[in-house]
């Protein structure tokens, strides 16, 4: 099946700044897609946004992949939301 | 123990080290903070856990378990850090369970670990779940060089340490003993709160009758799936009374309590046997029981009887450390971190199959 007849999904997730978007991209990119032959993934950062593009051979895979990605990005975004501010507040060390 | 004296490669640290450990390979989501101090002491600063408990008669599936972990991870981590009275900046490393376990739950925890690692610029340490249990058991009980019986819902192994490797002497050929117990608990509709194994243990105390079951040790290994089939078949037996009450007085009946009792006695005897074989093989006098099933007091009792006959000792921990937890991941992780090990972000994946003997135990002589 040629890739031109594949289904594509593009998802844009805005973050507070490019640094956070980059963190999200790096974190999610570590795991490979379960069906690498049938699902192609591309992650990129555009400004403050994480842009994810998926190409899948079936509609069902498009749904599953999108759902999985959104669950993961939600977790990462909530983690950054919860700890992001605190992580910027580096303690001053007195020696 | 035979063998010449080797100096420990792990020296007393020049400063205090603190590590956060994150665990989520099954239905328990745990976070713990450990401190290794300059005097060589290892202190548990916090150990927080939340368990995904399913209704009676149901097991936990990967998708729902992963969802539970995603919902609870941040709360549990914040709680652990607060209870330890530290900030995330104080950490030396962030340890997480690399495997073995269930894929989706493991990955959920790994995502959080990676995010924290990048936010706070702390190194990641991927930890083997089984090694975590062993190291926490050693630390809590002080056992020197025991034969380890690692029994939980996902794993059943007899392990002995030799030359920087935890070697598997015997194991289950099919399902884990905890899995066997939990699945039977589902069949008789026992509650999963706090855990099916705990409720089987309480039910077994009321048992009066030992029903015949297959006894399937296979050399140094055990097989449990056949026993599960047999014990489930008893619930179709004409003598079985699910309510535990006979229809008429002095009837020959089998109750759920009898089945729980019989199942425990049989599988625990098998575990004691294969542990004893390993002890005899390497000439050890100590047994350390780790893993969720290690909480079972009947198993501890039976192991104690065997050990006493060999003039040996049994070591076990309480449910804080037996049952999956984050502090054991922190402990094993910090030990390997102190020996120079860490996991690159690109390699911080999870794997469902991760053998105990794949780990290089650099911190032991």
UniProtKB/TrEMBL annotation, chain A:
Q: Where in the cell is it found?
A: Cytoplasm; Nucleus
Q: Which Pfam families match?
A: Pcc1
Q: Which InterPro entries match?
A: CTAG/Pcc1
Which Gene Ontology terms of cellular component type are present? cytoplasm; EKC/KEOPS complex; nucleus
What range does the record give for the signal peptide?
A: none
Which UniProt key words apply to this protein?
A: Cytoplasm, Nucleus, tRNA processing
- Which superkingdom is the protein from? Eukaryota
The answer to whether UniProt assigns keyword Nucleus to this entry is yes
Main localization of the protein?
cytoplasm
BP-aspect Gene Ontology terms: tRNA processing; tRNA threonylcarbamoyladenosine metabolic process
Recorded hits in PANTHER family, A to Z, give: EKC/KEOPS COMPLEX SUBUNIT PCC1 FAMILY MEMBER, EKC_KEOPS COMPLEX SUBUNIT LAGE3
Family indicated by similarity:
Belongs to the CTAG/PCC1 family.
Q: What is this protein called?
A: Transcription factor Pcc1
TrEMBL record, chain B:
Per UniProt, what is one GO molecular function of this protein? Answer: metal ion binding
Q: Which residues bind a divalent metal cation?
A: 129, 133, 150, 324
Q: Which cofactor does it need?
A: a divalent metal cation
**What remark does the entry make about the cofactor?**
Binds 1 divalent metal cation per subunit.
- Start and end residues of each Gcp-like domain: 44-330
Query: Can you cite an annotated GO cellular component?
Result: nucleus
Which enzyme type, at the first EC level?
A: transferase
**InterPro entries, alphabetically?**
ATPase_NBD, Gcp-like_dom, KAE1/TsaD, Kae1_archaea_euk
Reactions accelerated catalytically: L-threonylcarbamoyladenylate + adenosine(37) in tRNA = N(6)-L-threonylcarbamoyladenosine(37) in tRNA + AMP + H(+)
User: GO terms for biological process?
Assistant: tRNA threonylcarbamoyladenosine modification
Q: Which key words are in the record? A: Acyltransferase, Cytoplasm, Metal-binding, Nucleus, Transferase, tRNA processing
Q: Where in the cell is it found?
A: Cytoplasm; Nucleus
Q: Could you tell me the EC number(s) of this protein?
A: 2.3.1.234
- Which residues take part in binding substrate? 150-154, 182, 197, 201, 296
HAMAP family for the chain: Kae1
Concerning its family, UniProt says: Belongs to the KAE1 / TsaD family.
NCBIfam families documented for this protein: arch_KAE1 (TIGR03722), gcp_kae1 (TIGR00329)
The entry's protein name is N(6)-L-threonylcarbamoyladenine synthase
Q: From what organism does this protein derive?
A: Rhizopogon vinicolor AM-OR11-026
């Amino acid at each position: 099946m040629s890739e031109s007849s594949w289904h594509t999904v593009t998802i844009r997730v805005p973050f507070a700044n490019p640094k956070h978007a980059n963190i999200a991209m790096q974190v999610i990119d570590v795991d490979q897609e379960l069906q690498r032959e049938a699902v192609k993934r591309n992650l990129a950062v555009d400004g403050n946004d994480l842009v994810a593009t998926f190409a899948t051979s079936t509609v069902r895979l498009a749904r599953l992949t999108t759902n999985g990605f959104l669950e993961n990005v939600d977790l990462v975004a909530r983690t950054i939301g919860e700890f992001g501010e605190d992580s910027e507040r580096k303690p001053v060390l007195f020696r | 123990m035979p063998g010449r004296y080797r100096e420990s490669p792990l020296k007393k640290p020049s400063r205090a080290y603190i590590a956060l450990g994150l665990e989520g390979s099954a239905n328990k989501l745990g976070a713990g903070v450990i401190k290794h101090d300059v005097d060589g002491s290892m202190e548990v600063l916090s150990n927080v856990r939340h368990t995904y408990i399913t209704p009676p008669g149901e097991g936990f599936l990967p998708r729902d378990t992963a969802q539970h972990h995603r919902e609870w991870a941040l709360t549990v981590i914040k709680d652990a850090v607060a209870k330890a009275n530290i900030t995330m900046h104080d950490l030396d490393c962030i340890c997480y369970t690399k495997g073995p376990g269930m894929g989706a739950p493991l990955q959920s925890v790994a995502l959080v670990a990676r995010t924290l690692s990048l936010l706070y610029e702390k190194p990641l340490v991927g930890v083997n779940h089984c090694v975590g249990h062993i190291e926490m058991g050693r630390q809590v009980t002080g056992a020197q060089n025991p034969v380890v019986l690692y029994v939980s819902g996902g794993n059943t192994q007899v392990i002995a340490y030799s030359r920087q490797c935890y070697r598997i002497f015997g194991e289950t050929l099919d399902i884990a003993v905890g899995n066997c117990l939990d699945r039977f608990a589902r069949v008789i509709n026992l509650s999963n709160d706090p855990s099916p194994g705990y409720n089987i243990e309480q039910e077994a105390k009321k048992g009066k009758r030992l029903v015949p079951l297959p006894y399937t040790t296979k050399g140094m290994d055990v097989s449990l799936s056949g026993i599960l089939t047999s014990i489930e078949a008893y619930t179709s037996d004409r003598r079985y009374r699910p309510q535990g009450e006979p229809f008429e007085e002095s009837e020959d009946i089998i109750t759920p309590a009898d089945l729980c009792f019989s199942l425990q006695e049989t599988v625990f005897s098998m575990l004691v046997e294969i542990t004893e074989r390993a002890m005899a093989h390497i000439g050890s006098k100590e047994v350390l029981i780790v893993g969720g099933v290690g909480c079972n007091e009947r198993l501890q009792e039976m192991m104690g009887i065997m050990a006493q006959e060999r003039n040996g000792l049994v070591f076990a921990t309480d449910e804080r450390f037996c049952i999956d937890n984050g502090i054991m991941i922190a402990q094993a992780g910090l030990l390997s971190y102190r020996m120079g090990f860490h996991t690159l972000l690109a390699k911080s994946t999870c794997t469902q199959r991760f053998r105990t003997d794949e780990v290089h135990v650099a911190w032991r002589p």
